[in-house]
Amino acid sequence: MKSMGTKKIVYGAFMASLITVATMVIHIPSAFNGYIHLGDGLVLISGILLGPMTGGISAGIGSMMADFLSGYAFYAPATLIIKALASFFSGYLYQRLIKRSGIVSFRLVPFISSGLTCSTIVTGGYFLFECVVYGKSAALLNIPLNLVQNSFSLLIAGTLLPFLLRRNELRSLVLKKDYEE
C-alpha cells in the first residue's frame, strides 16, 4: 500500500516537471501577457492518470512553475488555482465515468467530457482573473485564444492518453483513489 503512495508522489513530481516543460517549449504570446502552449494537454492527462488530488497538485505546481520561469509571475497564483482545479475536476469526472465500466483503457466519451470540463475551467478561470485585472471587454479578447489552446491540448492529450493507458504501471494508478494510500 505504501509503495503505491510513493509511486504516486514520484509520478506527480515527474508530471509537474513535464507540464512545466510542455508549457515552456511551444510558447506563443497572446494578448494581455498570456501565451498559448501545449501544457494543458498534460494538465488533463495528469488528472486522468494520477487522480484528482495528485493530478491537481501536479498540474497546478507544474503550470505555476512555467509561469515563474517564463517571466509571467503575475499570472502564477491564478495559474496554480485554475490548473489545479481543471485537473482535479477533469480527473474526478473521468474516474467516475470509467468506474461504471470497470475497464481501464481509453474511453472516448469520458475523455471528451473530462477534456471539455478542463477546457471550461481553464477558459473561465482566466476570464474571471482577467476581468478583475484588465476589465471585462479586454478579458473577452483572450477567450478565442484560450479556445485555440484548449483545442490543441485536447488533441495532444487524446493522442497520448491511449498509449499511456496501455502501460500496466500507469493503468494501475487510474482507479487508485488518492485517499486510499
UniProtKB/TrEMBL annotation:
Source organism, top-level taxon: Bacteria
Pfam families named in the record: ECF-ribofla_trS
Signal peptide as annotated in the record: none
Sections of the chain in a coiled coil: none
Sorted UniProt keywords: Membrane, Transmembrane, Transmembrane helix
TM helices/strands, residue ranges: 12-30, 42-66, 72-94, 106-127, 147-165
Xref: PANTHER family: UPF0397 PROTEIN BC_2624-RELATED (PTHR37815), UPF0397 PROTEIN SPR0429 (PTHR37815:SF3)
Protein name as catalogued: ECF transporter S component
